[in-house]
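From the shared-data thread, chain only:
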Amino acid sequence: MLQDRLMDDLKTAMRANDKVRRLVIRLVRAEVQNDEIRKGQKLDDAGVVEALSRMARKYRESIELYKDHGRPGMMEQEALELSVVMEYLPQQLSQEKVLEAARQVAQEVGAQGPQDKGKVMGKLMPQLRGRTEGSTVNAVVTDLLEGLVR
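Structure, as tokens:
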């Protein structure tokens, strides 16, 4: 179970005095705990992956902001923390794999054009959650339905 792995890794990081890993794992555990309180039940691995995905998205946004504002030190720190979060997420899909899945779903729902984007996204996102960013899926589906990708 992912939560058990997080606890074991936290103990290992504490023993090794790995401050970055210890900090990030504690942040992840806090995020998971907050989700459990909100939902009123213990999270399964899918719920933990959802929390990790949210954290990864926040780290990416922070990295972009620091990059735009000329803060390389902060950007590097956020990138380092993001790399720890990424270790717990499932293998990320390539854009080609996302496109392949989008084509299949578009065919299943009978999508005809951009007006059917909601149908495709609604069925595709649960399949890809945690394995790619929503913005990537959105861009691929938009291009596919607008006929930019065949």
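The domain at 95-145 is CATH 1.10.10.410 (Arc Repressor Mutant, subunit A).
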